[in-house]
Amino acid sequence: MVLLETSGAGHGDARAYVQQTLAAPLQVALAALCRERPAEPVVWLAEFLLANKPAPRVLLQPQQQLLRVLETEGTRAEPHVTALMLRFAASFAGATLIDLEHKFKTMGSIKFKFDRFALSYQRQHPDLSHAEAERAILRLHTSAPGRPPDQIIVDSLRYTIQVPTEQYTEAVRVVRDELGGACGFERIDEKNFWFGEQLYRGINDVYAMPIHDEGAEASELFFEVQLHTPESIELKHRIHPMMKEVQSPQTVDQARIESLQAEMLALVAACPIPEGALGLPKEVIRPPWWQAQQRRS
Question: Which of 20, 96, 100, 208 gives 220 a disulfide partner, CB atoms 3.0 to 4.6 angstroms apart?
């Protein structure tokens, strides 16, 4: 059905506009008109279009768009990835997939991280408005997938595998080889926190999972895999409340902050390092405050 003939400059644009905005509702209205055959067809057609006009399109803000994309694609991918992680854990005696109930990062945490990334991006690109920075962060997750050190949310879907200390290094190699090989995921970041004086021990890897579903708003989904020993998990749980206190805006007592940092470093130093873990790539740069502390000492 030809709804409108156009001519002159902008012919293609006009045709596209008509097809995108008028074709579907007009076809429905004209079909109804033919069935009804009213005495005043023009008036009837106008009233029909007004009564049946489509709901206005709601334009979501970049943060809302990203939340929707991460939730949709994460929910879609989760059963497959969870099955893989359970298989990996089952292949090592005594290993287990822990904290599975927390495999999805909360929307509140994602919002917080998105805001922080947008502010950081704007500081790096001062010629951009905050809205433009937010759109840039959205693009890094959708139309132009980013890679570290880009500001991307890599742990909207995350897994933690706890492996007995004596099997740890071999388990890391197997998981990395399988996810990056047979599974076809790209390992875009690998962090080995067993090196040096950190506030954490373990391996944190980030993978990009291709999305081939028609209609998907992203071409990849990022997810994180943490590999721990029983000792590094215990360490993580002990340090977490201290870290929250150090990072809290309400903690302004510098002596208290330095005391907590020293206590955390002591706990980390006491955590046994699995044999061969220091041969796994790659070393994580020590935190800036630690480097400053070393210079002062």
Answer: 208
